[in-house]
Predict the 3D structure of the following.
Amino acid sequence: MTGIALFGATGDVYAAPAFGVLRLPSGASHWETAGSGLPTSAVYGLTLSQSGNVLYTATHGRGAWALTLPR
């Protein structure tokens, strides 16, 4: 696991395991893909903007992405 973030507005947890970004919805017991358009390679950084509802991800040499989160 290279990163983990809690989205306070919904209680969802976002994590970056070996490849991609996963989401554990509040109250759920199974992880799912966080959203479309995110990298499927190793993610080395997760930053969550609580006020802007955006999850930022970064990889090594493949760029950075942003995902607008649902409220």
The radius of gyration is 11 Å. Residues 3-68 form one domain.
